[in-house]
Amino acid sequence: MILPRKRQCPTRITNPVSGIRSLARCLSRGAKRLCGGGKKNPGQNQIRLGKDPKKSNRVVPRGHLVVHVGESDGDTRRVVVPVIYFNHPLFGELLEQAERVHGFDQPGRITIPCRVSDFEKVQMRIAAWDHCRRKNSYKII
C-alpha cells in the first residue's frame, strides 16, 4: 500500500524570506483544500457569480431519480430518491396514488400527491426495511 506523501508546513525557519514563502505556499494549499479545489477536481465547488447556488447543485447522482412531493395546490418539494425504492410495495402505493390523481399522461416530472411528512415516513420505513433485510440476510455456501 502506497500512502500519499504528506506535505507539512515549515516548523523551523532558516532564511526569513524563504520561510515566509513556504508558509504562504502552505496556507494556500490549506485554503485550496478547504474550498474543495486542487488537482483532482479543479473548480468542483466553485459557483460562478450571478448563478443561483441551489440551481447549480441539481445534478442527480447515479442510481437515483427525482420526484416532486406535495399536495395538489402546486407547492411541491424536489426529492432525490434511490431507484431501488421504486420496487418497494410502499413506494408502489405512492406511485399508484399519483396515477389515480394525475393519470399516466402526466407530462414531465413525477409528482407524488401527499404531504412531505408522510413521504418522509415512507422513506424511513423503506430504509429501515432495507437495513433489516441486509442485516438478516444469510449466505449459503
TrEMBL record:
Entry keywords, A to Z: Developmental protein, Growth regulation
Recorded family membership: Belongs to the ARG7 family.
Protein's GO biological process: response to auxin
Organism: Arabidopsis suecica (Swedish thale-cress)
PANTHER family in the cross-refs: AUXIN-INDUCED PROTEIN-LIKE-RELATED (PTHR31374), SAUR-LIKE AUXIN-RESPONSIVE PROTEIN FAMILY (PTHR31374:SF201)
InterPro entries for the chain: SAUR_fam
Membrane spanning stretches: none
Protein name, UniProt field: Small auxin-up RNA
Tree of life domain: Eukaryota
